[in-house]
Design brief:
This protein has about 250 residues and is α+β, with helices and mostly antiparallel strands. Helices cover about 45% and strands about 20% of the residues. Keywords: Transferase.
Length: about 250
């Protein structure tokens, strides 16, 4: 009998693995419905939906291995990263989903709120927070929305033989900023950006990608700390923020 593995659990959702099946339980039935619809619309490999009975969604495991993990060098080849770039370009050129994305005003409000929390609780020096806060505001610019994954962490892209075999966790799929997806995939793996762009194309706003690196790291920090994760682990969010200081010094 296959063992039940708890993949992730917090107040919003939980994911269990039993053999080759992932069971996701989400407190927001609308979010899981959008996840299913996003996977149906995305022109890239996604997990097979086995069944969906809110609040539960059962998905088949995708083949291959993740591009890497945050906090450790990616062992994937440059060709695999380029394949991820090509897949991401296909997604960004696809028709937009019918539901709205997250307004920039909401993102800006979150940035200011989380920076104030970081300054009040001091897990980082104030100058690191303030410098990255200024950099992060560069992401809050008008942009043409595209179909984005919305949470394209490096562990969400699976490859095999230098081809993408699956992209998982589509709960944030929506219209949004293409540079956000590029930034989240390379967060903590900035040295692989050029490999990714070899497949995606170089017509990108590198300043916006850097801004999203800062914004994502700033806004994720409190949640990570409060849920038992360590953003100060080597190669993780706080190192990303410190890297911006070295660039500007």
């Amino acid at each position: 009998m296959d063992e039940v593995e708890l993949v992730v659990a917090h107040s919003e959702r939980a994911t269990l693995r039993v053999g080759e099946v992932f069971l996701k339980v989400d407190g927001d039935p609308g979010r899981s419905a959008r996840e299913v619809r996003a996977m149906e619309l995305a022109p890239v490999p996604t997990p097979e939906v086995l069944w969906h009975e809110p609040p539960a969604l059962a998905l088949a495991a995708v083949p291959g291995t993740a591009l890497g993990v945050l906090g450790a060098p990616s062992e994937a080849s440059p060709a695999a990263w380029a394949a991820a770039g090509r897949a991401l370009r296909r997604l960004h050129e696809a028709p937009l989903p019918a539901w709205p994305g997250r307004p920039l005003e909401e993102v800006e409000a979150e940035l200011e709120r989380e920076c104030e929390w970081l300054l009040a609780h001091s897990p980082l020096p104030a100058e690191v927070v303030q410098r990255n806060r200024r950099i992060a505001r560069g992401a809050l610019r008008p942009r043409r929305p595209v179909f984005v994954h919305g949470d394209l962490q490096i562990t969400h892209v699976f490859v095999e033989h230098d081809e993408v075999t699956g992209i998982i966790d589509w709960s944030e799929g929506a219209p949004g900023d293409a540079m956000f997806d590029l930034a989240i995939l390379t967060l903590g793996h900035e040295e692989r950006l050029e490999d990714l762009l070899a497949g995606y194309g170089t017509d990108v706003d590198r300043g916006a990608i850097r801004a999203w690196w800062s914004l994502r790291s700033l806004t994720a920090a409190r949640w990570l700390l409060e849920h038992g994760f360590d953003p100060d682990a080597p190669g993780c969010e706080f190192d990303v923020l410190r890297a911006r200081m070295r660039e500007s010094s």
